[in-house]
Amino acid sequence: PGPRIAPRHKRYLFTSFFPFTMRDHACTIIAGQWALYDAAAVIQRTFRAHLARTGRGKKAKKFPFKILFKPGAAMEQANGILRMVSAAESATDFGNDNDSSSGGGGVQSVAEVELAEAADYEILSDLQNGVQGLDDQPYKHIIKTFEVPTTVKALYSLLLADSSPFTESVHLANQEASNVTVGKWRPSASADEPHVKQASPAASTTAGGRSREVSFVQKIDNPLSPIRQGRGFWFQRVGWLASGVLVYQTLSTIKDVPFGDSWAIRKKWSVRPAGEAGIDSPLCQVTCSIECIFYKRLLWSGKMESETISTAMKDYAVLATKIVEFVRQAEGGSAGKGGCAAAP
Questions:
Q1: Does residue 304 surpass a pLDDT of 70?
Q2: In this structure, is the dihedral angle defined by the CA atoms of residues 139, 142, 144 and 148, taken in order, positive or negative?
Q3: CA nearest 250: which of 106, 150, 139, 103?
Q4: Mean pLDDT, range 279-284, rounded to an integer
């Protein structure tokens, strides 16, 4: 039988029975079903809220339309539901409630309410994403601290500059990613926007002023995920604090997987000079931290977070060694310190 959605104490699970050979096809269907259900659920909640505001929700406790889930038709189905709701909104006998006090003067349509709530969700997500400014405070979990035999400025030039192959050939290769596209660093948006405000007013105008996007296809080995690979996206920011610390932030999301739009991973590298020589110290310390953020309540959020942290600790144990080796090879060859690109 095909997949179906079963309510379990206000949480919704997919239940299906597929032969192992049909796994990929089944996962595609489930992902399509989930996208449709999620859109329909938002519309249903919005509709009930509209009834409550207009005084027509006392008797109309159930959604008056039967929602049929059709694989591959999520957007068309959701738009159809919106049209049905909008058309029925002005019916006087809606839900068998003829309360004359539910006049329509100044009342928003369901479509308008839906758009407003969507905008609120985008704003909330932007604040939760944590890109409100750069600082050297680690995230919730410190997964690796190590030292690299080079200066902080040289580390940026070797690992993060536009001309550096590190992100694709080392960092993402360590995660077995493919189809990698690394964007160029560009000045961030206006500092007046809340998600790009500077953490320190004393910092220079270039501190935290560069951002870029990275896209790739990520292999997924998590036994909880029915999807074997998904599209990964990184939004990255880099800059100097007034204290001379280099901060490198990444907001990571994976698409095409169940609940992929419900959570994200934040990573931060804080790079500071080691020893007493200041910014020109030939040794720098890198502190890597991570945390998971959830935009919705998920049944397995604790398990997802613990496995993400565990996997990241294993990956960074290997990555730290590769970074030190990469820097030593680069500085020992033709790409010496004198040939480094300019730091931000």
A1: yes
A2: positive
A3: 139
A4: 87
Spatial distance between the Cα atoms of 135 and 248, rounded to a whole number of angstroms: 10
d(CA 2, CA 206): 54
Q: How far is CA 11 from the centre of its chain?
A: 22
Tokens 């002023």 — which residue?
Answer: 209
pLDDT in tens, 111-152: 433 443 443 333 333 333 333 467 888 999 999 999 999 999
pTM score above 0.85: no
Q: Is 319 exposed, middle or buried (0-12, 13-18, 19+ CB in 10 A)?
A: buried
Q: Is 242 helix (H, G, I), strand (E, B) or coil?
A: coil
φ, ψ at 89 (rounded to 5°): -60, -40
Tokens linked to 161: 């500059």
Residues 6+ apart with CB under 8 A from 59: 95, 96, 97
SS (H, E, C) 63-85: CCCCCCCCCCCHHHHHHHHHHHH
| Residue 4: Cβ-neighbour burial (10 angstroms; 0-12, 13-18, 19+) | exposed
List the domains of the chain with CATH numbers: 4-92+109-123 (no CATH), 130-339 (3.30.530.20)
Band (76; pLDDT cuts 50, 70, 90): low
The residues, ordered by sequence, that sit 6+ positions from 232 with a Cβ below 8 Å of its Cβ are 177, 215, 216, 217, 218, 252, 253, 254, 255
Sign, CA dihedral 96-98-102-107, equals positive
> pLDDT per residue over 240-271, tens digit each?
887 888 999 999 988 877 777 788 999 999 99
Note whether 35 and 74 are within 8 A (CB).
yes
> CB neighbours of 157 closer than 8 A, spacing ≥ 6?
164, 340, 341, 342, 343
- Residue 97's DSSP bridge partners are none
